[in-house]
């Protein structure tokens, strides 16, 4: 069984940066697709970013493109999300997700249904 634990969330002012971490245990994540999703109050969970294990291709939501960078460190069994120029609308609980299946297309990485394992989430609050 895979356990995912997110960390790095917090309360920041608009324009600040945060780096979220997702640490995995129970399995080696080197051949897992991994992604970040978020859920704001009163809204459905949405895709933020993802990274492929096969070729390290990265995928981003339009709202985060240019302001964020997803990366992974297989030696540490971890994934990261660097977020810059944060906005109040980025306020949400951020979730890490992982799946052992091979994905090759963006449409697979952006779907919640593509991921079997989820963390508990870390709160990010951006004040104006």
Features of the shown structure:
mainly beta, single chain, 128 residues, globular, four-stranded antiparallel β-sheet, seven-stranded mixed β-sheet
What would you say this structure looks like, in words?
The chain is mainly beta. It contains one helix and eleven strands. Strands 2, 4, 5, 6, 9, 10 and 11 form a seven-stranded mixed β-sheet that branches. Strand 4 (33-39) and strand 5 form a beta hairpin. The longest helix is centred in the C-terminal third of the chain and has 4 residues, at 106-109. The protein is globular.
Q: Care to count the β-strands?
A: 11
N-to-C order of helices and strands:
EEEEEEEEEHEE
What composes the largest sheet? 7 strands, mixed
DSSP strand content = over 45%
> Helical residue percent?
under 10%
Kindly provide the radius of gyration, computed on alpha-carbon positions and rounded to a whole number of angstroms.
13 Å
Unreliable stretches covering 5 or more consecutive residues? none
Shape: globular
- The average pLDDT is 95
- The helix count comes to 1
Termini, distance in Å? 40 Å
Helices and strands: which structural class? mainly beta
